Amino acid sequence: MSWISWKDAYRTGEEAIDRDHKTLFKLINEFDDAFQESRRRRDLLAILNQLVAYAEGHFQREEAIMAAHHYPELESHQQLHEQLYDTIYALNERLQNDPRPLEREAIAFLKNWLGDHILHCDLAFAEFIRRKNPSKSGANA
Q1: Cα–Cα distance between 35 and 37 in angstroms, integer?
Q2: 128 vs 136: CA distance, rounded Å
Q3: Residue 121 belongs to what domain range?
Q4: Is residue 139 part of a domain?
Q5: DSSP 3-state helix, strand, coil percentages of the chain (rounded to 5)?
Q6: Domain containing residue 102: CATH number
Q7: Crossing angle for the helix pair 104-117 and 15-36, nearest 10 degrees?
Q8: Mean pLDDT of 82-89
């Protein structure tokens, strides 16, 4: 069962970004499913490792698209990405090294950072693109 679902409200209109976001949603849901099923720590780690690697690649792809469009908020967006990546990486480290169970709040973080980041930051970039290039306003991912 999906814990976080893709919504049209998350659509940026940039196909590569939207495809990446959908994959991130899928990985977060896989992690939550594994957690709910009380799978072994190594199963959770494998999924979280995928999430960390994919997030890093996504941030690089997204920043390249922003740079290509001369997005004026690129630097602050890069800082947000760095903070998000650091938090995900720390979560991964904790899961690897801490024998205590992973708390539900950690999974809530994964859900919230993606939805909040898309709605508040990535959609601001999408609006910038639409204003800059009105023909993009009808784009769908």
Answers
A1: 5
A2: 10
A3: 13-131
A4: no
A5: 80, 0, 20
A6: 1.20.120.50
A7: 170
A8: 83
Answer for the pair 58, 24: CB distance below 8 angstroms, yes or no.
yes
2 found inside a domain: no
Residue 77 · residue 71 · CB < 8 Å: yes
Scored b (16 or more CB within 10 A) or e, 5-44 reads ebeeebbbbbeebbebbebbbbbbbbbbebbeeeeeeeeb
pTM: 0.79
Give DSSP secondary structure letters for 81-130: HHHHHHHHHHHHHHHHH--SPPPHHHHHHHHHHHHHHIIIIIHHHHHHHH
Domain count, the chain: 1
Residue 127 lies in a domain: yes
How do residues 16-68 score in pLDDT, each as one tens digit?
999 998 998 898 888 888 888 877 778 888 888 888 889 889 999 999 999 99
* 44 occurs within a structural domain: yes
